[in-house]
Amino acid sequence: MIRCPRCNSLKTRKNGVKILVTGNRTQEFKCVDCSRYFSIQVDVNVLHELKYVEPGEILEIDGGKELRLHGLTDVHVGAVEHDYKKFEEAIKIIEKDKNARWFGNGDLLELIPPHYKINQRGQDVPPEEQYLEFVRLVDTIKDKCLFIRGGNHDYLRSFNILDFDVCKVLAKALGVPYYRMPGYTRIKVAGKTYNLVSGHGKSAGKNGDLELDKMAAVYSDGDVFFLGHNHQLYVKPMDSLIIGKDNTEEMRRRWYIRGGSFLRYADYARYSFYPMIRTGWVTIEFKEESINCWEN
Questions:
Q1: Hey, which of 64, 196, 266, 274 would disulfide with 81, CB 3.0 to 4.6 Å?
Q2: Which one, of 254, 262, 239, 214, lies nearest residue 106 by Cα?
């Protein structure tokens, strides 16, 4: 995320790379607000400014004519049972689709600190290597990331033990906004506005809808409600009747989503007889006429 030198806006987009006669490469940018084009040298180390989405603020996204938004939650890079193949599948799909974007919804790292209350055997690389590996894995799609959020494994563990928020640092490294709390994201597609409500989640209860019900009661203006944490993977349309513009009843469709995970059947889940859940993620497609969601 680079500031426009004319209007100081952070709403800038990459516009290709140019090779100068000197052999140096420059990254071209275009400002969405004032339409100015500008460039920086590619090998210059740019320090991204962190956009911290405070509780109560609303992040606005221009999705163009259509947008396929992939919710990557509970990735658990560094865990012994991390499903690398499934995560790489998600990365390739996002990379190849020009209308694809993604967000990181917490528990992106396994992050078991030394002398923590649980055994470190659940991870096969130390936390610092997990961070570097995640950055490496998403390198080809980092320009398509909309925001990052922390979870109980990464944000809470690093913050409670060290007073250091690893997910905040990750968002700054990727140059994207950072959510610490649940909140609204307003997505504009082809003149239509949709409200995504997202959070990491807290409850591990068997009925994932109960926490989504709580979320929908607090954030009542949502069109899509997205939670991770419990590794359940499903999408569910929730229909209701509203009064339309012509004073007749019409159906309103909202979506409940539990975003899945990229963690296979771990030892702690096996020991506690937790239900087996396949790995995967959810795609949310925003079009002018409707929203559609599916599991991958």
A1: 266
A2: 262
Q: State the residue for tokens 């790489």.
A: 88
Q: Which two tokens stand for residue 29?
A: 């940018």
Angle between helix 127-137 and helix 166-174 axes, rounded to 10 deg: 30
Residue 291 in tokens: 């929203």
* Residue 19 pLDDT greater than 80, yes or no: no
The 10 Å CB-count burial string (b at 16+, else e) for 30-60 is bbeeeeeebeeeeeeeeeeeebebeeeeebe
* Secondary structure class of 167 (helix, strand, coil): helix
Question: Cα dist. 186→146, 183, 239, 249, 271 in Å?
Answer: 12, 10, 21, 25, 41
Domains in the chain: ranges and CATH: 1-46 (no CATH), 47-295 (3.60.21.10)
pLDDT tens profile 43-52: 544 445 678 8
Tokens in use for 202? 């807290």
Contact in structure between 67 and 189 (CB atoms under 8 Å): yes
Q: What is the DSSP string of 47-84?
A: -PPP-EE-TT--EEEE-TT-EEEEEE----BTBTTB-H
Contact 284, 253 (CB under 8 A): no
Q: Do the beta carbons of residue 54 and residue 177 sit within 8 Å? A: no
Per the DSSP assignment, residues forming a β-bridge with 6 are none
